[in-house]
């Protein structure tokens, strides 16, 4: 673990000096986390048309272009910077495809503006239930999914976002607080509150509660 940490620190130092090769290595190390981010936040209307891997490829080109500016003044920790650039690319993809769909179809197509695309309740519930794979539990999946979606829909959007950031994007409480613009204490409280609301539904699905159990620190 110590060697891995030292290696990551060295790569981050090289990124800070504008080393694109080091950027590629670090981006590759975080690729699965970033792909999960894209899958969760990609609008469901685009999921058959847009490949998360293509989104990441475009985002990497953005990162390479932005690297000199980041190297000269790294205003964010490395991973949060990478995450921000990926989210910005995802927003552009949403606008390109959904605005075009609205024009072509001549109808209203809603598009979240003013912030990063948020994972909806259906996507979060699918991720949670996707971790329960036993055939013996298959019969309760549909019912539990409805319950999960209803519970998630009733939550404050920021509370839902804390669950996504902490469990699926694997951010620390400090990182989640930074992304949400909250104090560390406020982010932790929202996380605890959100998990308490899910507790009953999770407890009724064997094996599911264990997959999302975690502290608020």
From TrEMBL:
Domain RNA polymerase sigma factor 70 region 4 type: from-to ranges: 146-198
Tree of life domain: Bacteria
CDD domains: Sigma70_r4
Record keywords: DNA-binding, Sigma factor, Transcription, Transcription regulation
UniProt keyword Transcription regulation present: yes
Entry annotated with the keyword Signal: no
Entry's family note: Belongs to the sigma-70 factor family. ECF subfamily.
Cross-referenced NCBIfam families: Sig-70_plancto1, sigma70-ECF
Protein's UniProt name: Sigma-70 family RNA polymerase sigma factor
Organism of provenance: Paludisphaera mucosa
Lineage per the UniProt record: Bacteria, Pseudomonadati, Planctomycetota, Planctomycetia, Isosphaerales
């Amino acid at each position: 673990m110590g060697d891995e940490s030292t290696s990551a620190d060295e790569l981050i130092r090289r990124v800070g000096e504008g080393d694109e090769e080091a950027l590629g290595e670090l981006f590759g190390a975080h690729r699965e986390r970033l792909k999960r981010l894209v899958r969760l936040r990609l609008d469901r209307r685009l999921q058959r048309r847009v490949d998360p891997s293509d989104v990441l490829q475009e985002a990497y080109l953005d990162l390479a272009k932005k690297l000199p500016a980041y190297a000269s003044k790294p205003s964010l920790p490395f991973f949060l910077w990478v995450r921000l650039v990926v989210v910005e690319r995802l927003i552009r993809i949403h606008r390109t495809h959904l605005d075009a769909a609205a024009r072509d179809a001549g109808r209203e197509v809603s598009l979240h503006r003013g912030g990063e695309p948020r994972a909806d309740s259906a996507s979060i519930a699918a991720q949670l239930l996707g971790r329960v794979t036993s055939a013996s539990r298959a019969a309760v999946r549909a019912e539990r999914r409805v319950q999960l979606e209803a519970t998630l829909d009733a939550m404050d959007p920021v509370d839902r976002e804390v669950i996504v950031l902490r469990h699926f994007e694997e951010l620390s409480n400090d990182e989640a607080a930074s992304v949400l613009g909250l104090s560390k204490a406020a982010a932790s409280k929202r996380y605890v509150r959100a998990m308490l609301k899910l507790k009953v539904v999770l407890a009724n699905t064997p094996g599911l509660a264990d997959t999302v159990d975690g502290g608020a620190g």
